[in-house]
Design a protein that fits this description.
Layout: H1 5-20, H2 29-43, H3 54-58, H4 60-72, H5 97-106, H6 113-128, E1 130-131, E2 139-140, H7 144-156, H8 159-165, H9 172-185, H10 192-209, E3 229-234, E4 250-256, H11 261-270, E5 282-286, H12 300-317, H13 328-340, H14 344-355, H15 359-362, E6 366-368, E7 384-386, E8 391-394, E9 420-423, H16 426-436, E10 445-446, H17 450-467, H18 477-489, H19 495-502, H20 512-516, E11 518-520, H21 521-533, E12 555-557, H22 567-582, H23 590-610, E13 625-626, E14 631-634, E15 646-649, H24 652-676, E16 687-688, E17 695-696, H25 700-707, H26 717-728, H27 733-740, H28 758-776
Helix pairs in contact: 2-4, 2-5, 2-6, 5-7, 6-7, 6-10, 7-10, 9-10, 14-17, 14-18, 18-19, 22-23, 23-24, 23-26, 26-27
């Protein structure tokens, strides 16, 4: 009788999962499976029993058969190996290096057998880890940076140098010895950079054999200067761990020192994690310059400043990592305590947990039995709870605005409200009903009395510590409050959404995204419910049961966002004006009128396709456009460090129109020279003076003069629309911020420590942008072409 297939596959699935380490969504698994089968077939020839992998060797045939089943993707394919959606699909090289290497190789048209054998050796080394002393008989994982470096060579080591190395032996000891001999011999024609890449492979094999050991990164007494590398945890040396979120004159960062500066710099350049070796050392970064006189020599202070500056920039790259996030065990223990406790502090902390508000705001919560009683303008100093609609209401923090709104603008702008209304999760609702009941007369006034407010403010921290007396729990008041913000910003989340929902400003104190963001209340409700669904124990019913119409069907955020239904009228007006001038009988001003109307159409087309700011000389040079890759360089917010210049991917419609304008411009220049001996303009976009056809600059003033008949809103309103529309259509907040140029110092996508992928950026943004432009009615329009 045949064994149960599903049982066999389940056991083989566990082994295969540990070997190739796939991500949660199993992306491209049907392409990776054939390569994995080839690697497993190679392992048949390896002396696995000598590596204490006898059970693994006995199951190789079953694992290869599992790979064939996955490759066919039929009905018999196990559910755990089916490709899933709903997970972030950005770069995963640093999180799943082994699987990323296999996926990269599987996409090649052909690859050598030597690369397959190389992959088998590296994967077995990672699977085995480092041997501990014989007394323990256990294994330790190989440090992250070594695994990443070796997997990088699986992907990128050139075939010609693999061939120069020769046949790779199946025996691990022979392979290690051969690598050492090859590196020491320095073969002619093999550069030192390639030998360094072979060292990365040898290093992993040596660590698995136990003949090499992790680098000691402690500074010697008279050794070389140390390179400070920062881990992504706040300093925990204080009594109250929440103090790590505040800075009083100086910032404390956990760090480790390293003597191998070249290796550490390479790790920084590759964006590798530094979590494998952590020491107790701390550095304190003050706002003042480091005094050179305290250094060991004249350049020590400069090196120290540069190292500290680099780590602050790197830390800014990881916004969610700025605060320690709660684990599932922390959340479960906290919610169990809340359900058992009748202490007002427990209810206050639960409200803070699900709203992101501080205890000062939570203890000022006001109760309303009917929605009509809620004021139209809500203070940020408290939140409100409604019995009728089972919702909580808040006033999100909004930036101060100096520009007044004209009465004539309202018909073209999205209506906004000052209140954000969100549903209450089941656990909090049950706690409120237990305290207040369903009687409407109890739902008036304040939720907490004056004495309870004082008690909660003084005793919440101690009550939390007394309730969770476990050494493996790290609950604090601040971590509970910040958890919702962290959940909202993780993955495809957006800092602007998190700020509007929780009322928490980003750690750098401000966010340009908030200024330009106009979000539908239904969108924020959906984002909030998705976050609640990811927190175990808060919601007993499906998320759809909580979705309801908001008290007001409006948006919240920027008041300068144009209405999407009015923008097609703008495009239609610009097209009509262009066609009218195209067929105007020739006259002294007809050429200038047609060109100016064509430039206005092009400027607004670019503004709504790229988020260009209203500046002088947009697209100053034709070389700002990369016709091959479809990217446009935008430098519309210039500082000394050029840190806000950005690359914007152009939709195909925009590229086609810019080519039409390019031909129009060349034909116009020839005509101006032939008729008026007019020199070619220095800028790509320009206006013509109607009186004498002289060149006029493109500035905000001249744009308003030529377009005031069709567009009387602020010229930067295109940015308010574009940021809001892209988020409404599901574009991740990180990509929207890159397109808009909304980042702080240290978060530049093209920064030294950035791992941002412009390929993924273009792939996700361009299709959405093309749909937005098509719905507005933008299309490529021909100019005067090659006419003379």
């Amino acid at each position: 009788m045949m064994p149960d297939l599903q049982t066999v596959i389940t056991e083989e699935s566990r082994l295969l999962h540990g070997l190739i380490q796939p991500p949660q969504d199993c992306r491209s698994i049907t392409k990776v499976a054939p390569l994995a089968a080839e690697i497993l077939d190679v392992m048949r020839s390896m002396p696995l029993p000598l590596l204490e992998l006898g059970d693994f060797a006995d199951r190789l045939d079953s694992m290869i058969e599992l790979c064939r089943i996955i490759e066919r993707a039929g009905a018999e394919m196990p559910a755990e190996w089916q490709e899933k959606t709903g997970f972030p699909r950005g770069s995963f090289i640093t999180e799943y290096p082994v699987y990323a290497a296999l996926e990269h190789v599987s996409k090649r048209a052909n690859y050598s057998f030597a690369r397959v054998v190389l992959s088998a050796h590296v994967m077995l080394a990672v699977y085995l880890g480092q041997p501990k002393p014989p007394a323990s008989g256990d294994f330790r994982p190989i440090p992250d940076h070594n695994v990443l470096a070796a997997c990088r060579e699986i992907r990128l080591l050139p075939e010609k140098f693999l061939a120069l190395f020769g046949d790779i032996p199946y025996d691990r000891d022979c392979f290690y010895t051969g690598l050492e001999a090859f590196i020491r011999s320095c073969p002619p024609g093999v550069p030192q950079t390639i030998l360094a890449r072979f060292r990365n492979i040898r290093r992993v094999i040596g660590l698995a054999k136990g003949v090499e050991h992790p680098e000691k990164r402690n500074r010697q007494a008279n050794g070389p200067r140390s390179f400070i590398d920062v881990s992504w945890r706040s300093d925990e040396s204080g009594i109250d761990r929440d103090d790590g979120l505040r800075s009083e004159g100086a910032l404390s960062l956990s760090a480790f020192a390293g003597s191998d500066e070249v290796t550490l710099h390479e790790a920084v350049n590759e964006g590798l994690p530094a979590s494998d070796v952590i020491s107790v050392h701390t550095i304190r970064c003050s706002d003042t310059r480091y005094p050179v006189g305290r250094g060991l020599n004249s350049v020590h202070g400069l090196y120290r400043q540069r190292a500290v500056s680099n780590q602050i920039k790197r830390q800014a790259q990881l916004l969610p990592g700025r605060w320690e996030q709660l684990g599932q065990l922390d959340i479960v223990v906290f919610l169990q305590w809340v359900e058992r406790s009748s202490d007002p502090s427990a209810l206050a902390l639960l409200i803070s947990f699900v709203t992101g508000r501080s205890l000062d705001v939570v203890t000022s919560t006001r109760l309303y039995s009917r929605d009509a009683q809620i004021p139209m303008s809500h203070s940020v100093a408290h939140i409100s709870v409604s019995l009728e609609s089972k919702t909580w209401i808040s006033g999100p923090p909004m930036p101060d605005r100096k520009r007044p709104i004209r009465a004539s603008w309202h018909q073209n702008l999205v209506a906004i409200t000052e209140n954000l209304v969100l549903p209450i999760p089941d656990l909090l609702w049950e706690a409120l009903l237990q305290k207040l009941g369903h009687t409407p007369r109890n739902w008036t006034g304040n939720l907490f009395t004056k004495s309870q407010r004082t008690s909660v403010a003084l005793n919440a921290k101690q009550a939390l510590l007394d309730a969770t007396k476990r050494s493996d729990i790290g609950l604090t008041v601040t971590r509970l409050q910040r958890h919702l913000f962290n959940v909202l910003t993780n993955g495809r989340g957006d800092v602007a959404d998190a700020t509007l929902i929780t009322g928490i400003l980003p750690p750098f104190g401000q966010s340009s995204a908030i200024y330009y963001y106009n979000a539908d209340c239904s969108h924020l409700e959906s984002v909030y419910l998705d976050a609640m669904a990811r927190i175990p124990g808060l919601q007993s019913l499906a998320g759809e049961s909580m979705r309801q119409s908001s008290l007001r069907e409006e948006a919240i955020g920027s008041p300068f966002c144009p209405r999407p239904d009015r923008l097609p009228d703008l495009v239609s007006d610009l097209k009509g004006n262009l066609q009218r001038h195209r067929f105007t009988p020739p006259s002294r001003q007809s050429l200038a009128d047609f060109h100016n109307s064509y430039v206005i159409y092009t400027l607004f087309f670019l503004a709504f396709a790229t988020g260009y700011r209203s500046v002088k000389f947009p697209v100053s040079r034709e070389t700002d456009i990369d016709w091959e890759t479809g990217f446009l360089v935008i430098a519309d917010k210039i500082g000394d460090d050029m840190s806000h210049s950005r690359l914007v991917p152009l939709a195909p419609t925009v590229i086609n129109h810019l080519r039409q304008y390019q031909r129009h411009r060349e034909a116009l220049i020839r005509r101006l020279w032939g008729l008026h001996k007019q020199q070619a303009p220095s800028h790509f976009l320009f206006f013509l003076n109607r009186r004498n056809n002289s060149i006029a600059s493109v500035t905000p003033t001249t744009i308003r003069a030529h377009a005031q008949w069709a567009f009387d809103l602020p010229l930067n309103s295109n940015r308010h629309f574009l940021r809001s529309e892209l988020r409404a259509r599901g574009v991740p907040g990180e990509l929207v911020d890159v397109l808009m140029g909304h980042w702080s110092n240290g978060q530049e996508p093209h920064g030294h420590f950035s791992s941002f992928s412009y390929r993924d950026y273009r792939r996700q943004v361009v299709p959405v942008m093309e749909n937005i432009l098509a719905e507005m009615g933008w299309e490529s329009v021909e100019g005067i072409g090659g006419e003379v």
